[in-house]
C-alpha cells in the first residue's frame, strides 16, 4: 500500500478546493484511505493518519473512528506517538464516553515515567478531560508530582490538581500539605498555577478560606516584589512585570479579604500602591487597575481607598477604548449604592456617555444615570435624560421612559414639575411607555386639585399638536371630560389662558373618534369624555347626536357604551348629573391595573368604590348590570358595613329592576330569608317628612336549640342609591324563638334591594350565607 500523504500536503490540497462540495469530496476520499490503513493495523503511519484526522476534526468533520487509534498511540513507547495520541484523546474523547477509562492505566504509568515531558503530557490530558473516576484513581500520583522539585512538573501538577478538585471536591484535603511551599517558589509559572489552585480551594471550602488567610502577608510580599522589581525580559509585558500573575494574586486577595477585617487591613497599603504606581497608557496596566478596583470594592477597605478606586473608574470613562469605558460604567453601577457620593463626582462624565455611539455604553450610562438621581439633582438629571429620550434609538425609549416615571414619582420637587415631566415623556415617547402610566398620571392629576385648569389646558394644546401618542391622547381625553368646564372658562392662573369654545372642544374629541390613529381604547376614552361633558357644557343635543351615532358602531365595546349612554339620556336623565359628576380624590391602591377611588361620607354612609375613568371594558356579569356601571371597569357595588368588615358583595343582581318613589302605606311584611333555623322578616314604612326615604325594619329570629352569636346583617344596593344601616338591637339571636334581633335600614329613593348578606356563629362554627331578595311586595314599586 502506498505511503499516505503528509499532513502539510493534505492541508495544501484542501485549501485548493473551490467549493464546499469539492472540499467534502477530498475529505471523504482521505478518510476512506485512513480507515483502510487503520484496518490493516499499519503502525508505521498511524501517527500521521491520526494527525490528519485531528485536522479534519477541527474543520468540523466526524473523526470519532480514530478514538481507539489514539489509545494505541498513547500506549506506544515513542514520544512523538504519545504526543499525538494524548492530543487526539483531549480532542476526540470526553468523560461521557467509556473509551476514556481505557486510558487510566496508561496515564498512571506515564505519570511515573522517567521523562518529564511524558509526565507533562499525562498531566495535561488528565487535567483536560479526566472524569471523576480517573481523578480518584490518579489523585495520589498528582499529589506526588506537586511536591517534586521540578518546576516544569509542579506547574502542570497544580493545574491538574485544580481539575481534580473540581471533579472530586472531597479530595481537596489531600493537596493541602503540598500547598505549603508552593508560594515560596521563585518560578513564576509555578507561582501562577499555585495561586490558581489556592483560589479554587478557597472558593469551594470555607474551612480552606479560613486556613489560607494566614498567607495574606506572603501574597502581599510577592505582589510588592512584582511592582518594585526592575525590567525582566522573561516576564515583562508592555513595561509591566508579569501582569498575569499580578491579576491572579489580586483575585485571590479579594477572596481572602472579603468580610475579614484583619486580612483587609493587611492588604490596604499594597492595593493603594498598585493603584497609584501602575502605568495606564497600555491596556495591560488598565487590566491590573480594574482588578485592583474590584478587590478594593469587595474587601473591607478604607473609605479613602474606595474613593481612589472610584476615581480610577472615572478615569476609565475618559479612555478612548470602548471596552474600558463599558467596564467602568458596569463597575460604577455595582458600587453606586454603597459609595453614592463618590460616584456623584463623576456625574457629568457619566452623562456625556449617553451621547456615545456604542449602544452597550449608552445603555449602561442610562442605567447609571438613573441610579445617580436624587432630590438635589433631579432637575438637572431629568433635563439630560429627557434630552436623551428625545434622541435615543427606539430600543431605549421604553426603559428610559419607565426610569423617568419612577424618578419623578420619587423625587419630584413640585406637582407641576411632576405633571410637566410626565407629559413631556408622553409627548416624546408615548407609544413606548408602560401600560400603567395612564392610570398613574390620571391619579396624579386628580389629586393635584390646584393644577386642574393648568393641566387640562396643557393637554388640550398637546392634543392639537399630535394625536399619534395614544397614552397622551387617553390622558388628555380623560382630563377634558373631567375638567372641560375649566378649559372653556379660561381659569388657568399658571400660564396665559387660551380661548376655547365648547364646540371646539367637542370637535377635537369627535376627531379622535374617527381618527385612524386612535385605538379602540382611546375611542372609549373619547366617547366617555364627550358623555361627561353633557353635564358641563350646554351643547347637550350635539352630544346626544354623537352618542346615538355610535350605538351602531362595529366596535362592540364602543357600541356597548353608546347604547348605555343613550339609555341614560332617554330613561334615566334625572340620574345623569350624579353619575357624571367630577371624580373625587383618588387613593392609589395598585401599581398595575385600574386605579380605584375610595370615597367615604361618614360612618353611616355607603362606602362607594368606583373604577377610574375608563376605557370601555367588557363586564362578565349579567347584562342588566351594564347600564348602571356606566363608568366602567370593575364589577363592584356598594357594600354597607355594620360592626365588622366583610368582602364586597358581587354585582350579580337584577340591578335594573328600578323602583320609583315609594308610597309605603299598607305594604304587607315579607320574609326575606328562612334557612337553617334563621328567619328574617322585613316590615316597611314611610319616613317623615321625606316621602322618598323608605324605612325597612328587619326582624331576625332563631328556631334552633342554640343561640346564634356574632350575628351581622349586611345589604348592598345599586351604586346610585344611598343606604343607611343603623346598629342592630343585639348581635346574639336567642334560641327557640325566645326573642328577635331588629335592625333598621333607611333607603333614599329606593330601588329593589338586590342582595342581602349575613354572617353569624352557630354552635361554635362560623356560618356565612349570601341571599338575593327579589320578591318585594308589588306595592313597593308600582
Automatic annotation (TrEMBL):
Subcellular location: Cytoplasmic vesicle membrane; Endomembrane system; Golgi apparatus
One GO term of the biological process aspect: vesicle-mediated transport
SMART domains noted in UniProt: Alpha_adaptinC2 (SM00809)
Keyword Protein transport among record annotations: yes
N-terminal signal peptide: none
Lipid bilayer topology: Peripheral membrane protein
Keywords attached to this entry: Cytoplasmic vesicle, Golgi apparatus, Membrane, Protein transport, Transport
Keyword Membrane (UniProt): yes
One Gene Ontology cellular component: AP-1 adaptor complex
Organism superkingdom: Eukaryota
PROSITE patterns hit by this protein: GAE (PS50180)
Domain GAE residues, every copy: 665-777
UniProt similarity note: Belongs to the adaptor complexes large subunit family.
Name of the protein described by the UniProt record: AP-1 complex subunit gamma
Amino acid at each position: 500500500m502506498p505511503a499516505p500523504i503528509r499532513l502539510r500536503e493534505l492541508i495544501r490540497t484542501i485549501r485548493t478546493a473551490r467549493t464546499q462540495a469539492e472540499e467534502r469530496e477530498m475529505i471523504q476520499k482521505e478518510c476512506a484511505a485512513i480507515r483502510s490503513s487503520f484496518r490493516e493495523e499499519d503502525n508505521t503511519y498511524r501517527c500521521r493518519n491520526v494527525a490528519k484526522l485531528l485536522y479534519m476534526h477541527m474543520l468540523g468533520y466526524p473523526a470519532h473512528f480514530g478514538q481507539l487509534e489514539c489509545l494505541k498511540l498513547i500506549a506506544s513507547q515513542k514520544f512523538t506517538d504519545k504526543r499525538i495520541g494524548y492530543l487526539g484523546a483531549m480532542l476526540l474523547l470526553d468523560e461521557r464516553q467509556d473509551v476514556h477509562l481505557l486510558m487510566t492505566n496508561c496515564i498512571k504509568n506515564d505519570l511515573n515515567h522517567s521523562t518529564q515531558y511524558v509526565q507533562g503530557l499525562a498531566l495535561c490530558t488528565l487535567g483536560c478531560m479526566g472524569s471523576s473516576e480517573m481523578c480518584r484513581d490518579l489523585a495520589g500520583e498528582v499529589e506526588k508530582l506537586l511536591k517534586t522539585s521540578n518546576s516544569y512538573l509542579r506547574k502542570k501538577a497544580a493545574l491538574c490538581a485544580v481539575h481534580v478538585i473540581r471533579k472530586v471536591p472531597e479530595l481537596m484535603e489531600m493537596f493541602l500539605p503540598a500547598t505549603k511551599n508552593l508560594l515560596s517558589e521563585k518560578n513564576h509559572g509555578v507561582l501562577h498555577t499555585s495561586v490558581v489552585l489556592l483560589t479554587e480551594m478557597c472558593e469551594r471550602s470555607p474551612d480552606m478560606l479560613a486556613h489560607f488567610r494566614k498567607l495574606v502577608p506572603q501574597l502581599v510580599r510577592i505582589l510588592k516584589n512584582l511592582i518594585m522589581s526592575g525590567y525582566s525580559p522573561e516576564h515583562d509585558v508592555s513595561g509591566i512585570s508579569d501582569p498575569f500573575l499580578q491579576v491572579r494574586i489580586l483575585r485571590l486577595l479579594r477572596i481572602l479579604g472579603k468580610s475579614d477585617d484583619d486580612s483587609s487591613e493587611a492588604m490596604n497599603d499594597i492595593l493603594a500602591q498598585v493603584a497609584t504606581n501602575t502605568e495606564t497608557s497600555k491596556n495591560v496596566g488598565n487590566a491590573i487597575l480594574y482588578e485592583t478596583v474590584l478587590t478594593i470594592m469587595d474587601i473591607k477597605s478604607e473609605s479613602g481607598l474606595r474613593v481612589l478606586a472610584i476615581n480610577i473608574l472615572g478615569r476609565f470613562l475618559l479612555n478612548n477604548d470602548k471596552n474600558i469605558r463599558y467596564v467602568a460604567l458596569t463597575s460604577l453601577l455595582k458600587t453606586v449604592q454603597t459609595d453614592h457620593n463618590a460616584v456623584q463626582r463623576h456625574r457629568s462624565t457619566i452623562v456625556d456617555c449617553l451621547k456615545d455611539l456604542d449602544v452597550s455604553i449608552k445603555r449602561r450610562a442610562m442605567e447609571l444615570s438613573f441610579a445617580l438621581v436624587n432630590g438635589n439633582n433631579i432637575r438637572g438629571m431629568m433635563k439630560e435624560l429627557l434630552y436623551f429620550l428625545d434622541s435615543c434609538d427606539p430600543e431605549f425609549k421604553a426603559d428610559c421612559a419607565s426610569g423617568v416615571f419612577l424618578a419623578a414619582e420619587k423625587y419630584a420637587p413640585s406637582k407641576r414639575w411632576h405633571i410637566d415631566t410626565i407629559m413631556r415623556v408622553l409627548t416624546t415617547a408615548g407609544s413606548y411607555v408602560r401600560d400603567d402610566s395612564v392610570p398613574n398620571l390620571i391619579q396624579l392629576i386628580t389629586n393635584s386639585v390646584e393644577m386642574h385648569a393648568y393641566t387640562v389646558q396643557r393637554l388640550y394644546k398637546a392634543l392639537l399638536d399630535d394625536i399619534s401618542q395614544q397614552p397622551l391622547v387617553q390622558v388628555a381625553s380623560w382630563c377634558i371630560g373631567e375638567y372641560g368646564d375649566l378649559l372653556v372658562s379660561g381659569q388657568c392662573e399658571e400660564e396665559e389662558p387660551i380661548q376655547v369654545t365648547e364646540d371646539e372642544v367637542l370637535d377635537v374629541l369627535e376627531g379622535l373618534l374617527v381618527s385612524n390613529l386612535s385605538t379602540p381604547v382611546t375611542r372609549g376614552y373619547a366617547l366617555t369624555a364627550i358623555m361627561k361633558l353633557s353635564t358641563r357644557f350646554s351643547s347637550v343635543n350635539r352630544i346626544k347626536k354623537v352618542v346615538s351615532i355610535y350605538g351602531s358602531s362595529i366596535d362592540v365595546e364602543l357600541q356597548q357604551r353608546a347604547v348605555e349612554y343613550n339609555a341614560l339620556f332617554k330613561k334615566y336623565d334625572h340620574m345623569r348629573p350624579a353619575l357624571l359628576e367630577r371624580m373625587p380624590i383618588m387613593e392609589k391602591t395598585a401599581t398595575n391595573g385600574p386605579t380605584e377611588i375610595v370615597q367615604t361620607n361618614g360612618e353611616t354612609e355607603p362606602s362607594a368604590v368606583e373604577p377610574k375613568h375608563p376605557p370601555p371594558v367588557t363586564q362578565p356579569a349579567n347584562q342588566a348590570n351594564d347600564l348602571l356601571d356606566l363608568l366602567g371597569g370593575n364589577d363592584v357595588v356598594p357594600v354597607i358595613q355594620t360592626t365588622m368588615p366583610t368582602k364586597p358583595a358581587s354585582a350579580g343582581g337584577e340591578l335594573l329592576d328600578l323602583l320609583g318613589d315609594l308610597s309605603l302605606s299598607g305594604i304587607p311584611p315579607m320574609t326575606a330569608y328562612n334557612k337553617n333555623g334563621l328567619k328574617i322578616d322585613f316590615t316597611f314604612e314611610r319616613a317623615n317628612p321625606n316621602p322618598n326615604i323608605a324605612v325597612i325594619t328587619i326582624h331576625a329570629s332563631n328556631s334552633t336549640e342554640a343561640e346564634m352569636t356574632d350575628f351581622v346583617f349586611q345589604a348592598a344596593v345599586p351604586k346610585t342609591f344611598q343606604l343607611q344601616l343603623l346598629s342592630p338591637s343585639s348581635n346574639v339571636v336567642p334560641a327557640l324563638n325566645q326573642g328577635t334581633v331588629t335592625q333598621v335600614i333607611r333607603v333614599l329613593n329606593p330601588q329593589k334591594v338586590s342582595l342581602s348578606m349575613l354572617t353569624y356563629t352557630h354552635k361554635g362554627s362560623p356560618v356565612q350565607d349570601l341571599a338575593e331578595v327579589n320578591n318585594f311586595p308589588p306595592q313597593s314599586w308600582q
